[in-house]
Known about the structure:
Elements: H1 7-26, H2 37-40, H3 44-58, H4 62-86, H5 99-103, H6 108-126, H7 131-146, H8 151-163, H9 168-193, H10 199-205, H11 215-220, H12 230-253
Helix pairs in contact: 1-3, 1-12, 3-6, 3-8, 4-6, 4-12, 6-7, 6-8, 7-8, 8-9
Amino acid sequence: MRKGIDAYKIKLLALFFMILDHVHRYLLNPVTAPEWIPLITRFVSPIFLYLMIDGFYHTRNRKKFLIRLFLASLIMDLGNIAINLYFHNVNSSTGQYSLYSLLQPANIFFTLALLFAFVWCLENIKHHKNIPLSIFLAIVTATLSLISEGGIVLLPIAFIIWIFYGKKSLQCIGISVFCVILLAHALINFYTSYKGTTLYSYLCFNNEWALFLMIPLVLLYNGERGLNTAFSKYMFYTIYPIHIWIFYVIRLLSR
């Protein structure tokens, strides 16, 4: 056994903080809930992205991996649509259903699937395989990821993880630089556009800069898969949609 933390243990830790983040988002009163919770949970989606890209290089069947992500995304969307139709969750301004009102609350599977495909395209370009098609698909997947959940932040992280794959120190430097850029952007927005709130509250709200908290886990990751069972393989695919649907329904019932 190598020193450090394997992927299974990192996933368990990330799942705990993911649920904490969603409790804060869907169940707690935004006025009285601790503002700092989104800061300590911001590492969750990028660390899952990191493990997914690592899995890209170790899986025996990339096509099957990608299909599994898109299938999970489709199931998530169908569940979201069913809940929103049942509760007649329409657009508050128009009173009509919209794409947003039907597909909320979330679907990180779609973003991860797009970024998996994006990294695959980059690998093909790097190794001179199907270059015209790979360039086209890289542009398409990158563009779609920018309008998917968290993609505008996760796309640069995916590129940093890919381009420095196998070089943890450079990955961590790249992530740190990106976080500094995000923090600088948040500070500029605060001092030029926002009134009536404190800097602390604003940085807790505009919190993407805090994804640097993934760095300790990247450094501790020992490259081992850890527990290898059906549960460990599919727990994220199961826990993510089920707990979000439960929390979302509770929130809709309490309106």
